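Why this split exists: single-chain examples teach little about how molecules sit against one another. For that reason, every record in the complexes split bundles all components of an assembly together and asks for one structure covering all of them. Below is a record exactly as it appears in the raw files.
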Amino acid sequence: MKFQLLALSAAVAISASATAADLKPAVVFDMGGKFDKSFNEGVYNGVERFRKETGIKYKEFEVTNPAQREQAVRKMAQRKADPVISVGFAQASAVEKASKAYPDTRFTIIDMVVDQPNVQSVVFKEQEGSFLVGMLAAMKSESKVVSFVGGMDIPLIRRFNCGYVQGAKYAVSNAEVISNMTGTTPSAWNDPGKGGELAKSQFDRGSDVVFAAAGATGAGVYQAAKDAGKFAIGVDSNQNHLHPGTMLTSMTKQVDIAAYNSFKAAQDGSWKPGINVLGLAEGGVDWALDEHNKDLITPEMKAAVEQAKADIIAGKIVVHDYMADNTCPAMN
Amino acid sequence: MTISNPQQAADQSPAIDLRKINKRFGPVHANRDVDLQVGRGTVHGIIGENGAGKSTLMSILYGFYEADSGDILINGKTVKIRASKDAINAGIGMVHQHFMLVDTFTVLENVMLGAEASSSLRHSMVDARKELQRLSEEYGLAVDPDAMTGELPVGLQQRVEILKALYRGADILILDEPTGVLTPQEAEQLFSILDTLRSRGVSVMLITHKLQEILAITDHVSVMRAGTMVADRVTADTNKEELAELMVGRKVLLHVDKAPAQPGDVLLQADNLTVRDADAVPRLDDVSLKLRAGEIVGIAGVSGNGQTELLEVLSGIRPVEDGKLNVNGTLIDATNVLDAKDLRHLSVGHVAEDRHRLGMVTAFSARESAIMGFQDEPEFNRGLLTDGGAITRHCQQLMDEFDVRPGNPDLKSANFSGGNQQKLCIAREMERQPKVLLVGQPTRGVDIGAIEFIHQQIVKLRDAGSAVLVVSVELEEVMSLCDRILVMFEGRIVGEIAASEADAKTLGLMMGNASEAGGNAG
Amino acid sequence: MSNRTLPAWIDIGLIPLINICLAFIVSAGIIMLIGESPVEAVQVMLFGAFGYGEGIGYTLYYATNFIFTGLAVAVAFHAGLFNIGGEGQAYLGGLGVGLVCLMLDSWLPWWALLPFAIVAGGLFGAAWAYIPAYLQAYRGSHIVITTIMFNFIASALMVYLLVNVLIEPGSMSPQTRSIAEGATLPYMYQVFAAFGIEIEQSPLNVSLILALLACVLVWLLIWHTRWGYAIRMIGFNEKAAVYSGINTRRTIVISMCISGALAAMVGINEVMGAQQRVLLEFVAGAGFTGIAVSLMGRNHPLGIIAASVLFGALYQGGAELSFEISTITRDLVVVIQGLVILFCGALAYMLKPTLEKLFLRYTLSKATRQDSLKEEAQS
């Protein structure tokens, strides 16, 4: 293993000059900005890792209004950037147009599907990961009331919510789930104060485990859980280390890996267009178990979740996807 | 803190000695080689028409403007006054026409504001209270230091302004049109205060356009015209006619020349009009009156006794809520509410009391101000758009007929002098020969020359068979212009008197105290 | 200071120019602090905004929005009202435009659809302005408070509608389906192409013509109709308006509705033109930028056009700047934009007294010189 890595880096070093000149990767972040503590930041972490490992610099742009999406994606292609990562569902139409105009450029879009021969679409089955943490929440809960704090009320977040509810009810059939969205504007991604307030009100209504899928707003939720002695579940990256003892687990979404892989694949020639659906089976989403939360997860809980995970991968359990039909039967 | 010292009067140099003061605003030469000496312990009047340069001169003395050239000597010493601070340090205090007081502060707080002796407010307050006490006694300016300033009557607020100046060590006081806001009684009190100040060695400069006040209180009087000082007189050696002529530059008729009225049909009749303010306090209380063709009816009264509300309700600015109004056979009451435009259509003209806030829009060009109230008339509109040419021609016509200067319809309304603004307003309201004309303060802030003209126009309209209602706080004006006088007090009409039988004393009594009122119009 | 005003060329020409220069000088300092060359930055910005077809297209495309919102703010301002609800009115206006387009796009070509879209968008925007206007005129609620509240309500309403009602079935993102081809406004590059002139692609579309038309109409309305007369009179002096027999409440409500309808025209540019669908946050701050635009443009259509182009250039040049120079982030671009607003809007009159003094000194010396010449001639 070690040897292989060494050999690889040696190879990289030898071909570095050539490769660096050939590969001109680029990334277009969306309106949240690259430090949004959510998937823009996940992408940023992935491409940064690529830059550090390979020394290949990438071009980047953060859009500030809807019109800039197409402008930026096009401009990247114009400047012969390749591949171009587009972050977020909102850039779909921009990528679609640009991919037609620049058929020789490779595009990767994250969180959305664009059906073009030179586009790689990476989407996640957030509902599957949410299902697992929903199970953990319901099993951990003593009151059998658990809750959810979403960021901005958009279909993607409802997908998280819907998976979470399904998981909780799968584990404990009479479990009750309280759901709240932080807001209706993008500021809902960055409002820890309101996140904390929402969590507190949910605790008052009996909840003792809360799952936040709300970007930076989540920080307030986790703090509120710690202050109230309740449990919280992190999102996107492994956030178990934030408040060991009250962070029950995290639902990880490997956006960084997806971004990293896109560049890496382009570098080594294995980049392929098409749809990459990253669910539990592909390791795109998962639940996090580490030294910070191992004391909170009983062997029974772990066994049940692992069993469900295997069943989902095997297709024995089908987690309903909110975005397939914009409904969530489990919540009615 | 230096307090004036009467002994200084022994030194014979004048308190203020202005030499060859010049000030230009662009092409306008506002002060041209102005000389002025004000003796110590005297009251010195400065008169002149609007725009004669009085205000500029005082602003130079108080540091608002810097003179382009010339010298200022205070008590014989040359001083440079670049800002109000320099003026205060030189012992000059100013009482502005509009008070510079904080309504929500007490008298004491207002007096010491900006002149706190130390950084500790408590210490300053104690010292200031003592000083205020001393000043009040020395100059006979009694006022409660703890009263809320905004709640004091106007006369007392002015007293606070004077105390403020004295507190800052002023031995020269400039008063700018001080009686404009006062009742006749309050004005009397002010004059007795000025008398006391004079006897204590304070020099007072009184800026006014009221000749009577000059004669009543000043020792000397200086007359300004068109930026220059045209005359200095010892007050005892001059008279109204001479001063008026000096101000205007020609002979001026000070009383209104008119034939006896020949009242005809009732054109406007008000029955039991009552107007209440937001707190349900009646501002106009059960007022009934009749205006007949061919007569001028005057409303006398101390400002704020319902005259404003009366004009508003008669002109349609304020809806009739209680009582009824009959204009030319049209009945107006709470069920048939008409607005100002409707009343204009009933041939009611209205020259507003306050032309800056009501009668014109100072930011508008003259041509735009000249169609106020008539903006929807077909003659000023062509389809959807306004007819710019017609509006300009209309304004030019009004300006020609009423001698408005400068006769430029495109000039901003604010850039006309008070008299010319008023002439334009009156021209606009009279142009259609209204059956009923309501005139509020016909000559407030208007030069003597223009007053004569305005009075003549009002009489001319009367003689043409219109009914005119004149509201004025100037008793003299009411007595000389009107045929019949109604006196208002606390929202009611408390008396009626024929102008020929009225004199200032009886009217003053009627205005001040309802119970002593003679006649009763009910 | 004095009652003399400066000549127009100084007041509306020189002062804004100096203010912009000041803003750029301060920005240059900041750019130097982060180790970049201000000269290069200015070059990139200017080239990005005006240097080539696409850049000019984007600049004018942004300017189109700002003209609409700037006019909206100006009309309300003339009536003495501070409408800071342009954002919400534009958002709702876009909804109206979108609904009509989605309903009729399979039947009508764009030129037949446009009048319906304008009316629908205008009505929606006007309706959104009507409520705060009514509350101001008849209930005394302050328009600044209510309009800003209505921005939030508009935002929440649009999210609800886009997430739950208008979302394209099966779509992941909260936006409507695309408006059918042929029913969307032609892009300018298409218009030019029809005449055989090739220009670079940009979202700039025929809405720009509509915006310029709106400028003319607003100019006529405000200065050449009796309704504009009434609006201005209320703005300067409400009591004088009552004196003139103007129904002030109704006029306030009407001018706010006109304002809202103008802001709603952003929806034409965005929904029917650039984005070709209703999506979240398409207004992107144009409503607020309109306040600065109107302020800088002295509430006059000509000034608003000039200020809109300036802000369009700041937006486009700013994007170009952060694209070309990676250390200049979009946040720094916002700082530069903010400095321009600060110097041209908030501090617009900072230099006026100084210039006035300089100017007066100049004319004075000229006048005295002439006087002395005259006296010499006389003697």
